[in-house]
Amino acid sequence: MRETGITGIMKIILRVLLTLICGIAGYQIALFLITVRIPLVGGVHPYVWTALCIILSALCGYILTPLMWFFLKKIGQVFENMLQNASVPDIAVTLIGLVISLLLANLVAIPFYWSPGVGFYIAIGINIIFAYIGMRAFLKRRDDIWAFVVNLAGRGGRLVRRDKRDAHAYAALGDLPAADVLPAGRKVVDTSALIDGRILDIANTGFLEGTLLLPRFVLTELQGVADSSDQARRTRGRKGLSVVTELQKIKGMNVRIHDITMKELRRDKVDEALVEFCKKTDSKIMTTDYNLNQIARIEGVSVLNVNDLANSLKPQFLPGEQVKIDVIRPGKESGQGIGYLEDGTMLVVEDGETAIGQTVEVVITSMLQTSAGRMVFGKQKR
Length: 382
Known about the structure:
Blueprint: H1 5-36, H2 46-63, H3 65-83, H4 88-113, H5 119-140, H6 142-153, H7 164-171, E1 186-189, H8 191-196, H9 198-205, E2 211-215, H10 216-226, H11 231-249, E3 254-258, H12 270-281, E4 284-287, H13 290-298, E5 303-305, H14 306-312, E6 322-330, E7 337-340, E8 346-349, E9 359-370, E10 373-380
Parallel strand pairs: 1-2, 1-4, 2-3, 4-5, 8-10
Antiparallel strand pairs: 6-7, 6-9, 7-8, 9-10
């Protein structure tokens, strides 16, 4: 099938270049054969021999173009697969390390160039060693280097706009070290966090920074929930899809959909694929799923649990503080009454069974943190 578009143009350019290069090579071969007076040249006129070599060599280049194009496509696919999970900071920092290390290597290798015999090979070895060490070292300190490059260029993922007066006031404080202005990093959002929806509220307040990565298989799972025959599951799935849409609309929020499948990650379950994806992209995972939380921590992946964030933001009460509460139902123990604070925290009133249906003042006596959340205990004010 004939290739069109940019691919067809590239193939034509490759054919022209390969034909031209082979033609030049044919001219060099003919010149060499004439110079050394090969008997085969014999009675053939040099001009005829030269033209014949050029034509044959150029024809070989023209014929071999499809084979060369095939190998280039295969090599391109290999590099594409290797770079698929690499982020822009990773590639940029690695290239910077390669360039700097090669410059240093050539400075070190200058004395060896003049060594007879093996000097050239020693210089090549030095370049290879320095290039490898430089790329590994720069990639190891990727966050620091990328923060320095971003600050040096004067732009970042999220720049706060300031007027000139604020800029001068900020400059008076002095430059912050790169370690204090590290990028917020990448965060992978799973299905449970999207269906939960509180991530949207966090993003709207501006506390959520960095890049949000959404693997394609997460959206596929979310779409499957939205297409479910069960009304409740369908509602939850549609809510998750709407949260993705709203996140993309938030100004300054970088939401990237990563085209990767579980098959490419060699995983059969979504949770396992998410953990593997986070490890490959050096990302944190945002979730409300307890099991995924535990698996990720075992695998060494940082977890941002929305439930933990919500619990940590609930107000702290000290023994002796007073609050007003509606007692709505009896507790598990005899004489207890149960009410809820404005943030949803359960408050157990020790002697509140007789006050069910009433609004009473309660004196806080203690607090208990459980896996289900925080519980507060108190007694009616007398």
